[in-house]
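LAB NOTEBOOK - FOLDING QUEUE
OPERATOR: T.R.
BATCH SIZE: 2
PURPOSE: Compare the predicted structure-token outputs for two unrelated chains run back to back under identical settings.
PRIORITY: normal
REVIEWER: second-year student, initials M.K.

ITEM 1
FIELD SEQUENCE / FIELD STRUCTURE:
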Amino acid sequence: MTGAGGRCATIAAMSWDVVGHDWAVELLRRDLAHDRLRHAYLFVGPEGVGKRTLAGEFARALLCPASQAPCGQCRHCQLAARGAHPDLFTVAPVVSGKKVRAEKIKIEPVRQLIYDLTLRPVEARRRVALLIRFDAANDEAMNAFLKTLEEPPANVVLLLTAESADALLPTLVSRCEVLALRPLPLAAVQDALITRWLAPQAQAELLARLSGGRLGWAVRALSDPAALDERRQKMDDLRRLVAASRVERFAYADRLARESSTDRLQATLDLWAGFWRDTLLTAAQAAAPIHNLDYADDVRRIAGAVPLDALHAVLAGLRRTHDLLDRNVNARLALEVLLLDWPYLK
């Protein structure tokens, strides 16, 4: 039987446009209801787990004057939902670079935000700042913002998101209330995709598995068929590479290195790592479910033909290559070494 505390958490979660993370919604709702707000909150967790959604809903609640905020109906809620509220400020990374593309937050928008937060609220009771992916800020930007965290202006609440607190300055993290979000149960992701985003049953199950419990990732994949097509192409490439000769693997490594930026290369490695993880789990007869349901036949075939130590070596090679690309090594050479170490199966 669900207790009173559980019912309250469910009701709170229902009034916020957030799927899951009931404990975090309840914590934030109580801070607001009892007027015990911290001046800064840090939402951490894997990419696509729901950090930005939760922070955005909390921002709306902070600006909404209703007793059960956010009401979703008032001028404050509607302006905040459109990103047009005069007391809501957002700083997010900008993607730059051609070959080595990276998301960065530079010093200029942070300096502007610091100034904006010193001014009095225009319409709401307080000013709210959303700093998205602040782990992408350079050291200059982090150090500049540290002063604001240490001595925040009155009537200001700061909401930061990051994949990991370890990527931020320790002094910055210590001045925030940290909320660590975890992936949702796969069944919860699948149900949300079907009921809220009207995904077909089979597609919802596949995306839930591929997401690893990250609903945001699954929703983006559902709305972007091109991304799923690219995944399918790279997975088909993997299937062909396992049976390819050394010369064919060299040619593929050269083409992939020339056609892809570093971030896209690493995304391909992550896709392949998911497949080889499934293969390892299947070979080891583990109870964990595989993620790549649409390639289950290939997973079983390779799992039955490749020794466990060789599968471990493939995964280690993928991690090593991912790290090498971070250090700007020659991508073609790194990919050649990776693919040459893969097992050969007809």
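ITEM 2
FIELD SEQUENCE / FIELD STRUCTURE:
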Amino acid sequence: MADIFRQGAGLQVILLFCQSRPQRKAIKMLPEPTPFDDVRPLRGRPKIREVRALVSRADGYGASDVHDTPDTHWILGQTAVDQSWDHEKTHPPITNPMSRFPKYSGSRKSWGVANVPSVIVEIEDENGLIGIGLSTGGEAAAFIIEKHLSMFVEGQCASDRSYIWDQMWRASIHYGRKGLAVHAISAIDLALWDLYGKTVHEPIYNLMGGRTKQRVPVYATTSRPDLAKDLGFQGAKIPLPYGPSAGGPGMKGNVAFIERWRKKVGPDFPLMLDCYMALDVEYTAELAHRLKPYDLRWIEEPLMPDDYAGHAKLGKKFASMSGCATFATGCSPMSCGWSVRLNFQKLSL
């Protein structure tokens, strides 16, 4: 146990009495940390005057994943009563996290995803410049932004984005760390980047290190990869129609669906598959095996984002299967990047 504590020359020295040994030994500790100073706005830089949060309405456009669209839009996966589709008024079904529940398996809109609209943040500085950021969260996110997070933004400079982000993250830790709180932080963060870019008259990509390519290939997310090809896109990502709850017939339907589009667009047009967090480890591995002949670039987001153990297990299965598509994930953790990376790193050891 410690019986003497002495401080000097910026170092803490603790003398410990070890019961197993009669001698005393000194252990040098790290220098005392210097207390943090508040980051004050730089002289001459405009300070942020106001943070405003706006919410899109259901009769407008822009709910989560743009699900507030007419039932005839392909993203809702609305089939005819007999499960057929014509790609005009009806479309192929799309499996999703709620497909396992019969009540909510008919359409992606049926489980209320469109009930949570977008939140738009405006951050205005003393010169009247306004930065705009967009995320999901509706009225709930707007409340968090205006009633809590704005206190860490107003009066600061848009150039101090990292400082502001750290304060928002730490201050919301008791109710945040992912989901709604991170959506709210993200909307503010995007608006700060936009505002600072306007302040220094630079596009955001220059603030992040500048260009690395003259041109970037673009693919389309769509239920009609043939139209994407005709329009000049460099690939297409198509939604998976059926999940585990559809059983064997659903698995066969998935294979037939991909086979049909591969024949339609030809062997050289890149195709990717979006599984929208609807599958499990074994189903995904079996699906990947059966889809080998159709040369998919990747199979995206088959598992729920918090299933880190499942991701690690699935990654090993994919690594052992030669010739199958790449396993892609990370689109919907709805948490901060470093915490997601930490969990994946822990499970990959």
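REVIEWER COMMENT (ITEM 2): Residues 48-57+116-207 form a domain with the Enolase-like; domain 1 fold (CATH 3.30.390.10).
FOLLOW-UP: none requested
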